[in-house]
Each structure stands twice: as structure tokens, then as C-alpha cells.
From TrEMBL:
Belongs to the RRF family. The keyword Protein biosynthesis applies. CDD domains: RRF. This is Ribosome-recycling factor. It comes from Undibacterium arcticum. The keyword Protein biosynthesis applies. HAMAP family: RRF. It is found in: Cytoplasm. Gene3D superfamilies: 3.30.1360.40, Ribosome-recycling factor (1.10.132.20). It holds the Pfam family RRF. The gene is frr. Keywords: Coiled coil, Cytoplasm, Protein biosynthesis. Residues 21-184 form the Ribosome recycling factor domain.
Length: 186
């Protein structure tokens, strides 16, 4: 392994951490409805837990209502139960073969809880990025030990990895500020 490979691997892993954070933040509910909040809902389908998107068409009806259209009519009850039992606090209602899922407006207290949740997710992402930096620095030390690079090259590479770390931590902070603004907007 070379210094360039260590740096490339480090950057790829840090990008994955940012992508994971974006996915986690997308699940955090704001005042508006969006289909992504139902992504992790599992429905019992012929004895197997299956993603909601595999058994129904999920669309937005309006700014506060999500529409769920089951592919099979007999699945409506199971889908409704799965949404109600999820930890999202949503109360779906059937209208013929369409299930309407209204998203209640958030209270000020709930918005503050959401902000705390977002900050916790961000801290987890920062920890992951720092762990990646530590792994990269250990890889560089191993290269020096194996005489694959000099100590000066190692020091320069560590500086590059620190710059990467700082850049990705700043990205995390920016994502959190944006999400916080989105949550607190009434």
C-alpha cells in the first residue's frame, strides 16, 4: 500500500460517512411530508418483513399528506398497521384502496427534540470521520515501519489527512445547520 492509496481510501470512507449522515438526516421528520420518512417501514408480506416501497406506491398528495397505494388490495390492513406501529408517530387512514398518512405539525418542544436528535447524528458522523483519520494515520505509521516511505512523507501525508478530516467535519456542521434551520422553520 502507498501513501496515495491510504489517502484515497480515507477520502472514500469519509464520503461514505457523509452519505450515511445525509440518509439519516433525511429520515428526521420536519413539518412537511415527504415519502422518505416511510423508507424504513417494514410490512409483513407473506410472512417476510418487506420494505413498504416493495409492496405499495408511496406518493405525496399535498404538503402535509403522504398517499400509499398498495399493489395488492388485501395488503392495505398490513400496511396501515406497519405505519401505525413504526416509531414515526403517524396515524394512517384508509380511503378505499388508498391509505392517507397525514403528518401532524410539529410542536415547539418536538422541534427541539428533533434538533437534539440531528446533533446526535452529527456527532456520530464526526466520531466516524475521526476514527477513519486514526486508521489512516496508523496505516501511514506502518508504511514508515516497513520502510515504504520516509518520516517526512508520512508527516506530509498526515497533514493532508488532517485537512481532509477538517473539510469533512465542516461538511457535517453545514449539513446540521441546514437541517436545524429546516426543522425550526414553522
Amino acid at each position: 500500500m502507498s501513501i496515495a492509496e491510504v489517502e484515497k481510501n480515507t477520502e472514500q470512507r469519509m464520503h461514505k460517512s457523509i452519505d450515511t449522515l445525509k440518509a439519516d438526516l433525511a429520515k428526521v421528520r420536519t413539518g412537511r411530508a415527504h415519502t422518505g420518512i416511510l423508507d424504513h417501514v417494514q410490512v409483513e408480506y407473506y410472512g417476510n418483513p418487506t420494505a413498504l416501497s416493495q409492496v405499495a406506491n408511496v406518493t405525496l398528495i399535498d404538503a402535509r399528506t403522504i398517499g400509499v397505494q398498495p399493489y395488492e388490495k388485501k395488503m392495505a390492513g398490513a400496511i396501515e398497521k406497519a405505519i401505525r406501529d413504526s416509531d414515526l408517530g403517524l396515524n394512517p387512514s384508509s380511503q378505499g384502496d388508498m391509505i392517507r398518512v397525514p403528518t401532524p405539525p410539529l410542536t415547539e418542544e418536538r422541534r427541539k427534540e428533533m434538533v437534539k436528535l440531528v446533533k446526535g447524528e452529527a456527532e456520530d458522523a464526526k466520531i466516524a470521520i475521526r476514527n477513519i483519520r486514526r486508521d489512516a494515520n496508523e496505516g501511514l505509521k506502518k508504511l514508515v515501519k516497513d520502510k515504504a516511505c520516509s518520516e517526512d512523507e508520512e508527516r506530509r501525508a498526515q497533514d493532508e489527512i488532517q485537512k481532509l478530516t477538517d473539510k469533512f467535519v465542516a461538511d457535517v456542521d453545514k449539513l446540521v445547520v441546514d437541517k436545524e434551520k429546516e426543522i425550526l422553520t414553522v
